TrEMBL record:
Family: Belongs to the HrcA family.
Sorted UniProt keywords: Repressor, Stress response, Transcription, Transcription regulation
SUPFAM superfamilies: GAF domain-like (SSF55781), Winged helix' DNA-binding domain (SSF46785)
GO BP annotation list: negative regulation of DNA-templated transcription
Entry annotated with the keyword Acetylation: no
Name of the molecule in the record: Heat-inducible transcription repressor HrcA
Length: 343
């Protein structure tokens, strides 16, 4: 793509994002500093259309970006905007949220709500299911008599925690020995495999184990069963913001598709599972998702981590026609802020 092609594609995307209307050659001629005639611009736009970057709605003489056009813009042409003002506002919101939060999920929900309200888009929070992930480390922490906190860390960096009630009370020293045994015995296996092996061993020959190993196996069985019940969580904030976008207000069928997409969380999970290991924001545009219901949407997400362990994905769901130059850095900086305050 030549520099002229790039400038014209960039202009089409930016003007369409701002106006929501198809963009014509005369509009671009006024927008650009380049001394090109509308006829020359029309020819370049026709070439961009032939290459799949633009499309001409049948009702208009102007053109709009395709998924490929938006993708090229995001990957090669975007100039990110400053989000310092928004981050100052976020700082105040999060200080209050942290004081009220019961756990990390509450902090993430507050961040998702902030993103939704500040961007007028749909806030998204994804906490993945845990039972299929391979164990890297398990910790048992005594929090009260007969109550322990089980902390599960997967090899992919996701952490999960669960309070477990026990019939027998243990000291922290005993719990440390139990967790050391479990980590040596089962590291690298997923929860389903561990649970199956635990049940098999306990049923096969319980008498051959001494008291310590029996207790370790029993505790592990209870802890793994508790953690294994945890399924993925997908939270949306501000779904009504979709109604503010004219491309959906003016098309009832599109609106139905959007709300159907929000209802079918399993599809969103399949999309977001691919984003968990990404360090930088992931932008999924239209049919890049692989699902027809999402063809009019964009997802901008980034992983949140604590001590290099990923525990969820934060982001926004929006129309494809959205200010990527603002949303991408805002989502990224929001996640970075959360990581800093948790560190």
């Amino acid at each position: 793509m030549t520099e002229r092609d790039r400038e014209i594609l960039k202009a089409v995307v930016q003007i369409h994002i701002n106006t929501g209307e198809p963009v014509g050659s005369r509009t671009i001629a006024k927008h650009l500093n380049m001394k090109l005639s509308p006829a020359t611009i029309r020819n370049i736009m026709a070439d961009l259309e032939e290459s799949g970057f633009l499309i001409q709605p049948h009702t208009s003489a102007g053109r709009v970006p395709t998924d490929l056009g938006y993708r090229y813009y995001v990957d090669n042409l975007i100039e990110e905007k400053s989000v310092e003002e928004e981050l100052n506002e976020f700082d105040n919101v999060m200080r209050d949220a942290i004081n009220k939060a019961k756990d990390i999920k509450d902090v993430l929900k507050a961040a998702s709500k902030f993103l939704s309200e500040r961007t007028r888009q749909v806030g998204l929070l994804f906490i993945p299911k845990i039972k299929v992930l391979k164990v890297k480390n398990v910790e048992f922490i005594k929090v009260a008599n007969n109550t322990i906190l089980v902390i599960f860390a997967s090899e992919s960096g996701i952490i999960q925690h669960k309070l477990v009630q026990l019939e027998e009370d243990y000291t922290q020293e005993q719990l440390n020995k139990f967790s050391n045994y479990i980590n040596q015995r089962f590291s690298g296996k997923n929860l389903a495999e561990i649970r199956k092996e635990l049940l098999s061993e306990m049923e096969r020959d319980k008498a051959k184990y001494d008291e310590f190993y029996n207790k370790a196996l029993e505790l592990s069985k209870k802890a793994m069963s508790s953690i294994e019940q945890e399924e993925f969580e997908v939270h949306f904030e501000g779904t009504s913001h979709i109604l503010e976008h004219k491309e959906f207000i003016e098309n009832v069928e599109k609106l139905r598709e959007i709300f159907k997409a929000f209802e079918e969380k399993s599809k969103i999970v399949k999309i977001l599972d691919q984003c968990l290991s990404e360090d930088s924001p992931t932008v999924i545009i239209g049919m890049e998702s692989g699902f027809e219901d999402f063809k009019e949407l964009a997802l901008i997400t980034t992983s949140c981590s604590f001590k290099d362990r990923i525990f969820g994905t934060l982001g926004v769901v929006s129309p494809k026609r959205v200010d990527y130059a603002f949303l991408i850095p805002l989502v990224q900086k929001t996640a970075e802020y959360i990581e800093e305050i948790l560190d």
